[in-house]
């Protein structure tokens, strides 16, 4: 089995989007997400010697990031008073077994849909990692950063028809990958 | 210029259309092609889905300036 190696110089290019997407849906705050990711990278650098190469770099970074996210919530919670959740109502007014409380909450459904969509975000990143690296770079500039065709052509020194061929290949590969991973 | 496109050309117009770079005439050409070509219809619908997926609010990327800053800090840390 091929073992994985650490190449910290490429971390930002390769994983920052994936980690960012992963974090932002969990902490819902741009600044905090930035901090957590840079902390993750630095912690990764420090413990790079412990990396055994059994998992991929990304999996390993995510496992560090998960701990950072948990720590973030621990810190946040220790600052404020503990929330109280009471399951039993002892108020005479509301006592009894209320049928309304047993009815399923329609808002739960949207929560679930949202969960599915958060997975879509990660699936896109995974697919972007999977396709040809040069194609992915150009495709990202065009689709995510909304660069002009001309600007990309100048940067990569290619003609517009080259660019459209690359975009076409990238789009086909992405659609195939997403169909497999997500749409099924 | 014919209003009838080859499949290859139709796909190219469809790609351009995803980035709003197809002209009005090109869109007409594409749509005429799609009327009679099932394969390109499939390609078009997948292509549209892909564009939509990228616009999904749950797809996020780190802003470019932040990435550059982070890369710089990481580089300093590595060279220590």
UniProtKB/TrEMBL annotation, chain A:
Query: Which terms in the Gene Ontology molecular function aspect does this entry carry?
Result: DNA binding; sigma factor activity
Record carries keyword Aminoacyl-tRNA synthetase: no
Task: List residues of the RNA polymerase sigma-70 region domain.
Answer: 12-77
* Protein keywords: DNA-binding, Sigma factor, Transcription, Transcription regulation
Q: Which SUPFAM superfamilies match?
A: Sigma2 domain of RNA polymerase sigma factors, Sigma3 and sigma4 domains of RNA polymerase sigma factors
Q: Which Pfam families match?
A: Sigma70_r2, Sigma70_r4_2
Q: Where is the RNA polymerase sigma factor 70 region 4 type domain?
A: 123-174
Signal peptide positions on this chain: none
| GO biological process, alphabetically ordered | DNA-templated transcription initiation
- Highest taxon of source: Bacteria
Q: Which family does it belong to?
A: Belongs to the sigma-70 factor family. ECF subfamily.
**NCBIfam families named in the record:** sigma70-ECF
PANTHER family per UniProt: RNA POLYMERASE ECF-TYPE SIGMA FACTO, RNA POLYMERASE SIGMA FACTOR HI_1459-RELATED
Q: What is this protein called?
A: ECF RNA polymerase sigma factor SigX
Organism expressing this protein natively: Patiriisocius marinistellae
UniProtKB/TrEMBL annotation, chain B:
Name it.
Glycine dehydrogenase
Q: Which organism is it from?
A: Patiriisocius marinistellae
Lineage in the entry? Bacteria, Pseudomonadati, Bacteroidota, Flavobacteriia, Flavobacteriales
